Amino acid sequence: MTWHRSEKKSKIATVGTDVACGGDHQHAAVLLTRGIASSDLGHFTRAVTLLTEAMGALQITLPHNGADPQFPDCSVEHDRLSARILLSLSYPTHELGRRAESIRLLVKAEQLASHRSLGQLTVVTRAQHGLLLLREGLVTDAIEQLNGAAQLLGDAEPADRCKILINRGEAHNQLGDIQSAIEDFSHAFVLSRRYELAELEFAARLNLGYMHYLAGNLPRSLELMPTVEEAASDHYKGVVGINRSRVLLSAGLVADADRTLVEASAALERTEMLTLLAEAELTRADVALLAGNYQLAQTISHTAVARLRRRNNQRATALGELMMLRADAEAGTRTDKLVRTGDRLAAVLNALGLLDQAKLARLIAIEHSGPNVRGRPRPLPTISPGQPLDLRLYGRLVRTKLAFARGDREAGHRQARAGMAELIKHQAQFGSLDLQTSTAIHGVGLAALAVTEEIAAGRPAAVLAWLERARAISSRVTPVRPPEDPITAELLTQLRWVVSQLEHEESDSDASERLRKRRQSLQREIRARSWSVRGSDSIDPTPRMGEMRAALDGAALLTLFGIDDDIYGIVLNRRGCWLQRLTTMAEAERLCRRITADLDVLALSYVPEPLRASARNSLARDLRTLDQLLLTPLSLPDAPVVVVPPGRLAALPWADLPTLKGRPLTVAPSAAAWLGAHARFRNRSGPVVAIAGPGLGRAEQEVAGVAQHWLGCETLTGTKATGEAFLSTINGAQLVHVAAHGHHERESPLFSSIRLVDGPVVGYDLDRVAQPPQQVVLSACELGQATVRPGDEALGLTRALLHSGTSTIIAGVAKVSDEGAADLMLDYHRRLATGAAPAYALADALQAAAEPIPFACFGAGW
Question: Residue 834: which residues within 8 A CB-CB, separation 6 or more?
Answer without folding.
Answer: none
